[in-house]
From TrEMBL:
Keyword Coiled coil recorded: yes
Cellular component per GO, a single term: cytoplasm
InterPro entries: FT20
Coiled coil: 80-111
Superkingdom of origin organism: Eukaryota
The name this protein goes by in its record: IFT20 protein
Chain's gene name: Ift20
Endpoints of the signal sequence: none
Keywords of the record: Cell projection, Coiled coil
Entry's Gene Ontology BP terms: cilium assembly; protein localization to cilium
Localization annotation: Cell projection, Cilium
Alphabetical list of PANTHER family matching this protein: INTRAFLAGELLAR TRANSPORT PROTEIN 20 HOMOLOG (PTHR31978)
Length: 133
């Protein structure tokens, strides 16, 4: 025990296998534990990096898919807008056609009334002509 204390004073120690060491056995044990913990920590860091890498990849894929869907939606919206404009133009053409036909109908009505009046006048003339004979 005294030999151990004398060696300890000079910074030399015996370990559990009675090998001569420069490091105190407790410190050597803690260093070993720390080395193992560091190894486990490094393994966890690598695992974390892998998880983060695959997460970033997944987020990139989702972003691309979202962008693609956004483009499809914009295309569909533009198509709907152009269809609405086409319908509007078609409706305006039909309204113009209806207005034109109404005017034509009014002309025909006036013409019909005029012809009816002429027919009535002619019938009256014929009646008068027959009664005069």
């Amino acid at each position: 025990a005294m030999a151990h204390a004398a060696l300890g004073a000079t910074g030399l120690y015996f370990d559990e296998l009675n090998k001569l060491r420069v490091l105190e056995p407790a410190a050597a044990q803690q260093t070993g534990r720390l080395r193992e913990e560091c190894g486990a920590f490094l393994d966890k860091i690598v695992e974390f990096q892998n998880i983060v890498g695959s997460l970033i990849e997944l987020v990139d894929q989702l972003a691309k898919a979202a962008e693609s869907e956004k483009m499809k939606a914009i295309g569909a919206r533009n198509l709907l807008k152009s269809m609405a404009k086409q319908r509007e133009a078609q409706e305006q053409q039909l309204q113009a056609l209806i207005a034109e036909k109404k005017m034509q109908l009014e002309r025909y009505r006036v013409e019909y009334e005029t012809l009816c009046k002429i027919e009535a006048d002619q019938n009256e003339f014929i009646d008068q002509f027959i009664f005069q004979k």
